[in-house]
Each structure stands twice: as C-alpha cells, then as structure tokens.
C-alpha cells in the first residue's frame, strides 16, 4: 500500500518510506502542515507520497529535494507536485538539467513567479503549470551578443488562454483558470473551487502517469457497473464499483435524477432504476473515449414505452410508443473507482416521440414562430446512419433552411419548401432499422424467482412481456430474447441491502 510521509524534525526535515515499485511523489508547499485531503487523494491513486515543506531556506530546501531520491531502485523515478512559493522555487531549480536526475515530472500550482517564457526544460521531464489570479511575476535574463545579463523580475498580466481549456504558451504546458484565485485546489482554503480543482486534478494525473509510464485500466470498473445496472439488475454489484472514502454523485441531467452519496445512490437505483427498464430496451455503443480518469460513452438506446421509466419520463404512464435516443454518459473515476457520472440526452426528442410535445403547438404570445425547433427519433437515427462517404446533403440543416425560406416568404413558407423538418424526416425515421443497425444488447430482466415480489412479480412480468410483444411494431429489429440469469445475479433488494 502506498504511504504518506509527513514532515518531522531531523537532519533533512522529513521522513520518507520507500515503497518498492511505487511511483514516488514529492508534494511541497510553504506550510509545515498541508491539506490532508490532497495527500490522501494522491496516495489513493497509487503514489508513494512524501510531503516536503518549503520555509524559504534555499539551501535546506535543496537538500530536502535531493533526499527524495534516496532509496529509489534501479529504473525508479520521482515527481514533484508543488504549490505557491514552493512551486516558484522548483520551476527555477529544475531548469538546470543537472538537477533533474531521476525527475520524470514537475507539476506546479499557482506559482508566484515563473521563469522566462523562452526557457526550456530538459525533454525527459514533463512540466505542467496551473496559473490563477490576475498577475504573475516573470524572471527574465537579458542576453546581449551571447553574454548573460542580470536577472530581472517583472509583473505581467495573466491573459485568458486558448479556447475553453485556456491553454497558455509560456515555454511549457500551462493552463490558466480565469474565474478562480490562487489556492483553488486546496480544500482547506476559502479560495477552494471544486470545478477548477477537479479539472486541474485530471490534467495533473495525466502528466504524472505519463511521466511514470503508468497505464491504468479505467474501463473495467465502468463495464462492471453497466453490466450490473442494465443487464443483471443486481443492486450490490451496481454499487460495488463506487468510491467509498468520498461521496460519489450521479446526475441524469434532463430530469435531474440520481443522487449524491452512497446511501442516496443506493435508493435511486433500487427504487427508480433497477427493474424500471422496458424489456424491449436495447443499447448499442456508438463511441467510447477513455481518458486518464474518465470514460465518455455515446449510446444508441431504443425501447417501447410499455412501463413508466422514472429516470427518463417520471410520472408518464406507458404510451406504447417507440423511442430512439442518443445517451451520452461521462463518468469520472478516483482511485480506480467510480466517482461521478453525468448522463445527457435530448429530452425534447423523447417527449415528441411519446406524444407529449407537438412541434406545431407554439405557446400563445410567441410571434414569428410557427413550430418549435425540435425533432423526434430522427435525431438519434441520424447519428446511427451517419456515413460521410454517402452523405445526403439534404439531411442536415433542414429546419434552418425552412426557417430562412419562411422569413423570405413573410406570409408563410415559400412554396416548394417542406412543411417542417419533422414531416420530412418522418418517413425516414419510421422505417425499420436495416443492415444490422438495429442490433444492440437487450437489457435483461431479473429472474422472477429471485425478485422481491416473488411469484406475483413473475405473473406480472409475464403478462407485461406478452402485452409488449403484442403491441410491438414490426421494426425489423431482433426480438428481445428471454434473459438468462447472470453469474452471481441477485435480487434488486438483497437481504443485506435493507435500509
């Protein structure tokens, strides 16, 4: 297990434990005691954490930094994560290649001073800086005809970086965080900002793992959760992949469903998700993006609305309508376990498909609009059918062209222009999925003999399934097969899950 070493009196000012095979991470700041949550978070990520305080004594501090390397085995390196004044010192100290022996990465948070932006660090060291606030001091070294002049320190404005990521060009990888102040990453300070802290954490983790050549599988826990949540309907297995030392959070954004904390999530899955999926639901993965601590899924979901679906259509009785929608799920992990999940979909499209929203019914008092700019299942179908090699130019921008034509016509839609995008797409969207496009993994119902309702549940499920099969449209999709019990499957409410 990774260990945290804390500062203590002695020749070097700190103690360290050599964990063989671990990636040693030196965390440094200008206070004798530091944010214990930061130390714990990095330990939980598998790093051998050492805290080294910076008290302004350069000679003593250099000795402490050098001592971090002691006990490292052959091929083992270390990294430095520094804050504030300690960050400024490390940025200057590690500019010299001779000081970078065994250093694989240096990450600094809101340094008060940075080196000349023309400076270049040794290519073997990964460098990352997080800047915050309005200004930062920059130390420059004037050169004239090859001669080095006296160092000069000046204060410069921190301008927003490129794009929404706010990346800066200061000689090495750096980001600015415009809406926060220095201290935003420390949980025990008033300046702490959760969103900026989490974003910086992900960026830092990426640099450190690359520096140590650590390849961590973040997909397995997510797949275990999906299997339990959608297919085996197992409450214990659904909850098992979540973190326990901090509060996990799940938000289904369009309906603000989900919960914060293990207790709330357990109740959500038990009462509002597990066994609340139509037996006809099929899921097909369109794309998956895996980051250092995140997994982003794009799923095509299709089902017949034969029962209430609380997390998507709360309070809406079954309409027996067919629904197709794209689900986007972004999950983040901490210490290899699920930490948060944000799920998005086009709720307007779902409402159109189940008959709760008519694009032609514009609210009273709204002038110049004869239809709502929403569509039905054709939105999901477009993603499923997308093929740049055989692009149909008339597919995209249909509503935009209609709106422009209407404005030109003034008194109505210009002759020759379709009535609405929905009408145009309707014939396409109602066609059955072909060429395997309708294939997907069918969600499984829990074997009734294990269900909390016993035999009565079995009868109800059978009746519901029979009704589903009778009402189901002939859409060309494979029929849902009778699910088989998954290995280790259990009821939605295990004996030890009672609250």
From TrEMBL:
Instruction: Extract the ranges annotated as region (Disordered).
Output: 401-499
What SUPFAM superfamilies is this protein classified in?
NTF2-like
Q: Mind listing the GO biological process terms from this record?
A: polyketide metabolic process
Cross-referenced InterPro entries, in alphabetical order? Cyclase_SnoaL-like (IPR009959), NTF2-like_dom_sf (IPR032710)
Composition bias, Basic and acidic residues: 425-437, 447-462
- Polar residues: which segments have biased composition? 479-489
Its domain of life reads: Eukaryota
Query: What protein am I looking at?
Result: Dienelactone hydrolase
Q: Which organism is it from?
A: Aspergillus caelatus
């Amino acid at each position: 297990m990774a260990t945290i070493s804390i500062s203590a009196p002695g020749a070097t000012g700190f103690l360290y434990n050599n964990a063989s095979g671990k990636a040693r991470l030196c965390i440094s700041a200008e206070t004798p005691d530091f944010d214990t949550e930061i130390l714990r978070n990095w330990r939980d990520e598998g790093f051998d954490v050492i805290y080294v305080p910076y008290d302004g004594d350069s000679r003593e501090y250099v000795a402490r930094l050098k001592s971090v390397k002691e006990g490292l085995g052959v091929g083992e390196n270390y990294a430095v994560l520094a804050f504030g004044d300690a960050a400024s010192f490390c940025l200057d100290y590690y500019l010299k290649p001779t000081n970078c022996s065994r250093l694989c990465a240096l990450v600094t948070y809101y340094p008060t001073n940075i080196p000349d932006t023309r400076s270049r660090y040794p290519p073997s060291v990964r460098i990352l800086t997080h800047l915050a606030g309005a200004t930062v001091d920059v130390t420059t070294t004037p050169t004239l005809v090859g001669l080095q002049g006296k160092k000069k320190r000046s204060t410069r404005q921190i301008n927003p970086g490129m794009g929404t990521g706010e990346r800066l060009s200061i000689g090495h990888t750096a980001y600015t965080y415009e809406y926060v102040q220095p201290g935003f990453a420390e949980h025990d300070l008033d300046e702490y900002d959760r969103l900026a802290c989490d974003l910086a954490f992900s960026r830092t983790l990426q640099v450190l793992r690359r520096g140590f050549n650590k390849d961590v599988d973040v997909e397995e826990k997510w797949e275990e959760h999906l299997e339990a949540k959608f297919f085996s309907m197992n409450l214990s297995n659904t909850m098992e992949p979540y973190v326990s030392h901090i509060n996990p959070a799940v938000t289904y954004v369009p309906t603000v469903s989900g919960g914060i904390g293990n207790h709330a999530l357990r109740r959500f899955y038990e009462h509002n998700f597990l066994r609340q999926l139509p037996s006809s639901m099929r899921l097909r993965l369109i794309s998956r993006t895996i980051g250092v601590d995140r997994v982003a899924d794009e799923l095509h979901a299709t089902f017949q609305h034969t029962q209430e679906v609380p997390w998507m259509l709360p309070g809406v009785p079954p309409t027996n309508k067919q629904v197709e929608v794209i689900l986007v799920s972004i999950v983040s992990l901490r210490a290899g376990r699920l930490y948060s999940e944000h799920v998005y979909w086009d709720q307007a499209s779902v409402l159109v498909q189940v008959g709760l929203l008519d694009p032609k019914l514009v609210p009273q008092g709204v002038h110049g609009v004869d239809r709502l700019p929403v569509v039905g299942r054709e939105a999901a179908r477009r993603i499923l059918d997308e093929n740049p090699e055989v692009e149909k130019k008339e597919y995209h921008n249909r509503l935009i062209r209609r709106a422009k034509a209407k404005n030109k016509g003034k008194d109505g839609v210009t002759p020759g222009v379709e009535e609405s995008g929905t009408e145009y797409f309707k014939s396409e969207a109602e066609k059955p999925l072909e060429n395997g496009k309708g294939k997907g993994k069918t969600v499984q119902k829990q074997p009734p003999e294990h269900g909390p309702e016993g035999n009565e549940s079995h009868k109800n499920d059978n009746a519901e399934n029979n009704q589903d099969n009778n009402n189901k449209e002939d859409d060309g999709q494979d029929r849902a097969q009778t699910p088989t019990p998954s290995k280790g499957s259990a009821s939605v409410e295990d004996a030890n899950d009672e609250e």
